[in-house]
Design goal:
The chain is about 30% helix and about 20% strand. It is α/β, with parallel strands linked by helices. The chain has one domain: Methylesterase CheB, C-terminal domain (Rossmann fold), CATH 3.40.50.180. Helix 3 runs parallel beside helix 4 and helix 4 packs parallel to helix 5. It is globular. The relative contact order is 0.21. The N terminus is likely disordered.
């Protein structure tokens, strides 16, 4: 098990431009601990892939919108990414980020048995934001997101993984740790505090 990293040497004084989060099994519980703590003036847009059944998409955004200070919505085709929002990938669509920092949606084949795929979001976000991106892998029962997080790391972005020992399902964070020398491996409480600090940088 990778030792927990609690130092702050990776936090730069320059503000990050986007945060991407990937989660699957146990994700609702994890996200409910993280997203509602972000203040209304949080300066970094947050973009989430949560593996859900296609029928659950509208419930998911309504659930978090009622609990978060930030506006929570599904990402729309060609929508410009802005601060003040938490965007969710629509069910059964891959979510990509274009060079002009807008969204595009795809119904291409599933990746890692998933659509939306965390890897697809992370890899396109890394191409667009490079070192100005934060990537976070939370609880989940497969290995989606590991290679996307590795690409974020290669581009100089900040990489965070939930400590598998604290995850409802350890497979996804452990797969990420096996592939990526993540900057932080942390409990949800520590990730929450780090997200708040990133918004204040």
């Amino acid at each position: 098990m990778k030792e927990l990293i609690r130092n702050t040497k990776y936090i730069r004084k320059k503000r990050y431009e986007a945060i991407v989060i990937g989660t699957s099994q146990g994700g609702m519980t994890a996200l409910t601990q993280l997203l509602p703590v972000l203040p209304q003036d949080y300066p970094i847009p947050v973009i989430v892939v949560q593996h859900v059944h296609p029928s659950q998409g509208e419930f998911l955004t309504e659930y978090y919108d009622e609990r978060c200070a930030l506006t929570v919505k599904e990402a729309d085709e060609k929508e410009s990414i802005q601060s003040g929002y938490i965007y969710f990938a629509p069910p059964d669509y891959h979510l990509l980020i274009e060079k002009n920092k807008s969204f595009s949606l795809s119904i291409d084949n599933k990746v890692n048995y998933a659509r939306p795929s965390i890897d697809v979001l992370f890899e396109s976000a890394a191409d667009t934001y490079s070192s100005d991106l934060v990537g976070i892998i939370l609880t989940g029962a497969n290995n989606d997101g590991a290679h996307g997080l590795d690409k974020i790391k290669q581009k100089g972005g900040l990489t965070i993984v939930q400590d598998p020992e604290t995850a409802e399902s350890s497979s996804m964070p452990q797969a990420a740790i096996d592939v990526v020398e993540a900057d932080y491996v942390m409990s949800l409480e520590e990730i929450k505090n780090l997200l708040i600090e990133l918004g204040e940088t």
